[in-house]
Amino acid sequence: MTKSEKLSALKTMNLACCECALRSGCKGVVFGEGNIESPVMFVGEGPGQTEDELGKPFVGRAGELLNKMLKEAGFLRQDVYVTNIVKCRPPGNRTPVQAEMETCLPWLRKQFSILKPRYMVLMGLAATHGILDKDIRMNQCRGKWFQRGDIMMMPVYHPAAVLRNPAWRETCIADFRLVKQVCEDAAGGAEEPQEKRG
Fold it and tell me: What is 76-105 written as a DSSP string?
């Protein structure tokens, strides 16, 4: 099977998932979309109301801002892959809890195993806690690279948080530019970024 066929089969299985209570409170499963050959995967926390209604990730106000920030950083939305750590909308657009993220994480891992991106951008604290470290704080990790196995991860502000705090916009764009530069450097044969802590 091709990568596209594997991803399509996984999506079909994911759309039928009822592993946690979130599925009963939403219209459907929001799987993910974008360039399946992209070296970078952007991961948010979970679908909002507009995403749940349309079945696509980041298509509401936060998604519109994400598109603008990506463009300012040199990316095009269609050039990257975008998904969430939980695939069903939490009630009232609340932040998913750790147990919900852990239940849904196998789907993200399967997406990752098919897509095999080299870099993962963790948008917001929920995605950072669910994937990187459940105890880390955003001011400890934002804009820094962390290595887990063969993948480099960078936590950044969630676009919804940037909507609430417009002063964070330039910071988020600067982080996106770091990711863009690393992708370009890697394509040119440059060394990988080093993990940074503290």
Answer: -GGGSEEEESSSSPPGGGPPPPHHHHHHHH
- Between β-strands 151-156 and 119-123, what pairing exists: parallel, antiparallel or unpaired? parallel
Quote the tokens at residue 148. Answer: 């887990």
Predicted TM-score (pTM) of the model is 0.93
Residue 197's Cβ-count burial label (10 Å; 0-12, 13-18, 19+) is exposed
Question: If we measure between CA atoms, which residue out of 46, 138, 36, 55 comes closest to residue 101?
Answer: 46
Classify 3 as helix, strand or coil: helix
151: left (phi over 0), alpha (psi -120 to 50) or beta: beta
Q: With CA atoms as reference, report the closest residue to 159 among 82, 53, 55, 107.
A: 82
User: 45 Cβ partners below 8 Å, 6+ apart?
Assistant: 84, 85, 86, 95, 96, 123, 124, 126, 127, 130, 158
By CB atoms closer than 10 A (0-12, 13-18, 19+), residue 86 is buried
Distance CA 94, CA 194 (A): 34
pLDDT digits (tens, 9 = 90+) for 139-191: 999 999 999 988 999 999 999 999 999 999 999 999 999 999 999 988 776 66
Beta strands 119-123 and 40-44: pairing type? Answer: parallel
d(CA 33, CA 77): 10
